[in-house]
Design goal:
CATH topology: Rossmann fold
Strand content: 15-25%
Number of domains: 1
CATH class: Alpha Beta
Shape: globular
Bound molecules: S-adenosyl-L-homocysteine, magnesium ion
Distance between the termini: 33 Å
Number of helices: 7
Largest sheet: 7 strands, mixed
Radius of gyration: 16 Å
Number of strands: 7
Helix content: 25-40%
Strand order of the largest sheet: 3-2-1-4-5-7-6
Oligomer: single chain
CATH architecture: 3-Layer(aba) Sandwich
CATH superfamily: Vaccinia Virus protein VP39
Length: 212
């Protein structure tokens, strides 16, 4: 499986936080698990990772549902290291990544494979009723948010489906520990086994029921 150049280029050109090697692993995982069911992404931002996922999904005529309130996480607000001033809506003074997401996905030619849900992950997860072929957790990185993402969404990962986490750092010097702790919890639960690691991207596969 090789990502078509047009999608790779569109993904690399999009704003976001997905290094090319991890993006390619995301694409390959999406292509591998799309036959199990639709792909859900928590943390859309400007659509960079969404393009990799949708490129993989498109090979099986599958959909990506991507969830974000588009108001930014704590660590990308004004004054923080990863803040991008272009994303501040001058009308409201608040961050809004939605127009950038929309332009990126349309420019990649992947609109028909992507459904954007604008809302808080926790609220959307309460309405969700559909088994998931691949879940990608890359939303808020605080303990509260990542625990909500796991508890609200991981129960929907189908048997044989994938659960992928981004920004997993065993060493606190490299990054925040909340995603790492939740990832360890998923492994400890006995419901998931690790099948792939690429940089800070860890992919697990469901082998038993529950989330621990
Ligand atoms: N996956 C993207 C990066 C996501 S950044 C990429 O690879 O480029 C994290 C995103 O999570 C931000 O856009 C932020 O708005 C969103 N987010 C943070 N907490 C959230 C929550 N509780 N509900 C929905 N979205 C959230
Ligand atoms: Mg990330």
């Amino acid at each position: 499986m090789r990502i078509p150049d047009k999608y790779r280029q569109a993904a690399e050109a999009a704003r976001g936080f997905m290094p090319p090697d991890e993006g390619l692993a995301l694409y390959e995982t999406a292509a591998e698990y799309a036959h199990v069911g639709p792909i859900a992404e928590i943390g859309t931002y400007c659509g960079k990772s969404t393009i990799y996922l949708a490129a993989g999904a498109s090979e099986h005529g599958q959909l990506v549902v991507t969830v974000d309130h588009h108001r930014g996480s704590e660590e990308i607000q004004p004054g923080w290291e990863h803040h991008d001033a272009k994303l501040v809506d001058p009308g409201t003074g608040r961050m809004d990544s939605l127009p950038f997401f929309r332009a990126a996905v349309a420019g990649a030619g992947l609109e028909e494979h992507v459904i954007a849900v604008v809302g808080a992950s926790k609220d959307v997860s309460r309405l969700w009723r559909c088994p998931i072929g691949m879940l990608f957790i890359d939303g808020g990185h605080s303990e509260e948010h990542v625990v909500c993402d796991y508890e609200g969404w991981a129960p929907w990962v189908a048997h044989g489906g994938a659960l992928a986490f981004h920004d997993i750092f065993a060493d606190p010097a490299e990054g925040g520990q909340a995603p790492y702790r939740v990832y360890r919890r998923a492994l400890r639960s006995g419901a998931f086994k690790e099948v792939r690691v690429q940089g800070s991207l860890h992919v697990l596969q469901r082998t038993a029921d529950g989330i621990g």
